Amino acid sequence: HIWLDQIRDILEKRGVVSPQLHVCLENIDSDVDDILRAAENLKISPQAEPINIGEVLQSLVSQVRIQTPSSIEVQMVQVEGPFLVNAITTELTHAFWSIIQNGIDAMPDGGKLNVAVTGGETKSRPEVEVHITDEGKGIEPEAQERIFSPFYSTKPSHMGYGLWRAKNVIDNIGGVITFDSEMGKGTTFNIRLPIL
Fold first, then answer.
1. Tens-digit pLDDT profile for the chain (196 aa)?
2. CB atoms < 10 A from the CB of 56, how many?
3. In 3-state terms, what secondary structure has residue 150?
4. C-alpha distances in Å from residue 132, one per residue of 24, 60, 65, 75, 178
5. C-alpha–C-alpha distance, residues 121 and 128, integer Å
6. 129, 117 in Cβ contact below 8 A?
7. CA-to-CA distance for 30 and 92, rounded, in angstroms?
8. What's the predicted TM-score (pTM) here?
């Protein structure tokens, strides 16, 4: 991105470029690419279709295991199924990826991340429940109210739109996302989605 190169040049001329600042600029560059890709996807307007939630999550977990340090163990358990959800595959996959990545980021010293898929039912409809649990430090009480707000992040190098976008995707297909968090023990994101 030309404007990022210009910022780098200005900072280098002023002698204020540090390794940390360089990492932040690289993260901004990556985030801008993500936003542009998301915008392109909106232009194409893909259609919702029946997708197997277990298969989507299993594929995602396999990818995450490859990219995750060995100090973090990623597990997935599915009870019953298959569960079909009417959704846009790329959007829902990215929503789950954001939640899983959030859990991994919360465990810099390692730990377990569990993805559990099970059937459920409310008074009005059958559902699939997805629980994503980490053993991280937990979400600070003051951050809990803003965790799904756009551009809010507790991590300096992040833009803060991952969980906000994930909640929008889940809301748009008639789902619900909540979380339970305990300081020093970890966080569980609970996602309920209507099934076909």
1. 566 677 767 777 777 767 777 777 777 777 777 777 777 766 656 789 999 999 999 999 999 999 998 999 999 988 777 899 999 999 999 999 999 999 999 999 999 999 999 987 666 788 999 999 999 999 888 888 887 777 656 665 555 668 888 999 999 999 999 999 999 999 999 999 999 8
2. 17
3. coil
4. 28, 13, 15, 10, 11
5. 8
6. yes
7. 20
8. 0.73
